[in-house]
Amino acid sequence: MREPHGVDPDVDLHDPGQVREWQRHRFVLPAIALGGMLGASARHGADLLWPAKPGAVPWTTLGVNVLGCLLIGVLMVLVVEVGGAHPLWRPFAGVGVLGGFTTFSTYVVETTVLLDDGHPGLAFGYVAGTLVLALAAVTVGLVTTRAAVGRRSRTGLDR
After folding, report:
1. Which of 65, 144, 146, 148 is most enclosed, with most CB atoms within 10 A?
2. 93 contacts: CB under 8 Å, gap ≥ 6
3. Does residue 10 fall inside a structural domain?
4. DSSP tag of 117
5. Whole-angstrom Cα distance, residue 159 to residue 152?
């Protein structure tokens, strides 16, 4: 038995089938990384333009997460239901750009800061409001994009 080569010890580059599989997917991680750099940079820019005020709702993070969820709804309709996009578009735009742009880890840290600073009501409102608005934004993105491209949902979300 030959020793596998490359980074992944489970991939045997002497096996033609595994080589073809690797070649088909070798650009996915770089696409995600490039998209992530762009999305995180955009989020950082928003944080610089509109920094959060201590003891207040972190409006920038809330806005970024809601906008990101809206765009994820739009993207999923276009990529999954309409189709025809390049195979790297979903990992680049969905996982990379929008995954780097939205920041639910910062949302948790900001909630913890609000709690630590003695603002439990504000923290609860931020948690609940973000969840409700993010889910609503995904739904709006799905429904409006389906309407724009003339598709009907099989899940009933657009009715």
Report:
1. 65
2. 35, 75, 79
3. no
4. T
5. 9
The three-point CA angle 76-35-79 to 5° equals 20
* Per-residue confidence (pLDDT) for residue 83, from 0 to 100: 85
102-136 residue pLDDT tens: 988 899 999 999 999 999 999 999 999 999 999 99
Q: CB 115: neighbour CB atoms within 10 A?
A: 15
Number of domains in the chain: 1
- Give the chain's mean pLDDT: 88
Angle of CA points 151, 152, 156, to nearest 5°: 155
Which of 78, 69, 82 shows the shortest CA–CA distance to 135?
A: 69
Domain span at residue 49 reads 16-149
Residue 139 lies in a domain: yes
Buried b (16+ CB within 10 A) or exposed e, 90-109: bbbbbbbbbbbbbbeebbee
Which two three-digit tokens encode residue 79? Answer: 């990529």
Question: Does residue 135 lie within any of the structural domains?
Answer: yes
For residue 120, the model assigns a pLDDT of 96
Which pLDDT value is given to residue 8?
Answer: 58
